[in-house]
Amino acid sequence: MRHVIALDVGGTGMKAALVGADGTLLHQARRATGRERGPDAVVETILAFAADLRAYGEEHFGEPAAAAGVAVPGIVDDEHGIALYASNLGWRDVPMRRLLSERLGGIPVALGHDVRTGGLGEGRLGAGKGADRFLFVPLGTGIAGAIGIAGRIEPGAHGSAGEIGHIVVRPGGTDCSCGQRGCLERYASASAVSLAWAEATGDPDADAADCAKAVESGDPRARQVWQNAVDALADGLVTALTLLDPRTLIIGGGLAEAGETLFTPLRAAVGERVTFQKLPTIVPAALGDTAGCLGAGLLAWDLLDRSTGSTPTTGTVPTDPKPAGATPTADATPTGPKPTDSTEVTA
Predict the structure, then answer these.
(1) Quick one: pLDDT at residue 87?
(2) What is the model's pTM?
(3) Which residues, given as ranges, of the chain have pLDDT below 70?
(4) Which sequence ranges form a coiled-coil region, renumbered to this chain (predicted)?
(5) What is the 3-state secondary structure (H, E, C) of the chain?
């Protein structure tokens, strides 16, 4: 069976899969990055993991992978296949595409940024499926965005499009590591909510999930912390939708796991702030932690499609979009492909 290798590299762990042409996860595995051993060891772990996946695919599906896609954090040169910098992994200027291709017998390899790659997965196979233009915003340790246009992700002229987390929403506010003050991710990321709730309760172990539960139980302190985050997020999102005019706004990451505890006040806050802008449909991400792997698989399939001059075969590119300005709803979110096999691999 024809398939590709997909790798989603995080700060502490890697998720990997063999992905079929229809986006099916044929096999899944996980492995620690081993970053405590240094950046060279992390790179070798990635290469060895990919080689193991290639061997598994050849044994179980009758042929080696046709291509590979890998998503990595930090600054990425997609065009030249270089992982330029990742503070959490400690590497600089790693020629990831070349190294992986050499380890995998010369097959074509695509490299992508982790958030943009996750956005590609959500856009084609998940919550954005059928939308000609979408914005994917995961709320995790930080906040970033992926701008989807006709089934593809816009990287920008310098590979940094979508850095919505560094829109200033509170001028003169909290210092940000980027050098600015008052950035969105300092107020509305999961880590920001965790910090605010820990300060409000005096419990250093309290986190955003605890805050969400306290909101649901009616705790006034939690409601205030939560509303502050929602208001900041709405301010940032309205700026983004003013510039980008997305048809669908997909919210993912740890904070989105709060469900309607987040989405009900967020839809209201965004609706209160728009004037002339058309409201996008605001929906939760559908693919969970498989979005990165599925997106990496799509990168690989797209690379193969480009080599033959064909259009993308995995996922749909809308040709008849719905009228702009659809009212945000809480409709059921599309579900992604179901895995057919799963293996837990530890380093």
Answers:
(1) 80
(2) 0.85
(3) 309-347
(4) none
(5) CCEEEEEEECCCEEEEEEEECCCCEEEEEEEECCHHHCHHHHHHHHHHHHHHHHHHHHHHHCCCCCCEEEEECCEEECCCCEEEEECCCCEEEECHHHHHHHHCCCCCEEEEEHHHHHHHHHHHHCCCCCCCEEEEEEECCCECCEEEECCEECCCCCCCCCCHHHCECCCCCCECCCCCECECHHHHCHHHHHHHHHHHHCCCCCCHHHHHHHHHCCCHHHHHHHHHHHHHHHHHHHHHHHHHCCCEEEEECHHHHHCHHHHHHHHHHHHHHCCCCCCCEEEECCCHHHHHHHHHHHHHHHHHHHHHCCCCCCCCCCCCCCCCCCCCCCCCCCCCCCCCCCCCCCC
Q: Do 170 and 182 contact (CB within 8 A), yes or no?
A: yes
CB atoms within 10 A of CB 70: 29
Tell me what pLDDT residue 325 has: 37
Taking the C-alpha atoms of residue 110 and residue 113, their distance in angstroms, rounded to an integer, is: 10
Q: Phi and psi dihedrals of 89, rounded to 5?
A: -110, -10
Cα–Cα distance for residue pair 13/31, rounded to 1 Å: 6
Contacts of 216 (CB under 8 A, 6+ apart): 261
Q: Measured in Å, how far apart are the chain's first and last C-alpha atoms?
A: 28
Cα 245 from Cα 243, distance rounded (Å): 6
d(CA 103, CA 98): 9
CB atoms within 10 A of CB 240: 21
In angstroms, the CA 294 to CA 123 distance is 11
pLDDT of residue 312: 58
Q: What is the pLDDT of residue 243?
A: 96
Domains assigned to the chain: 3-119+289-308 (3.30.420.40), 127-285 (3.30.420.40)
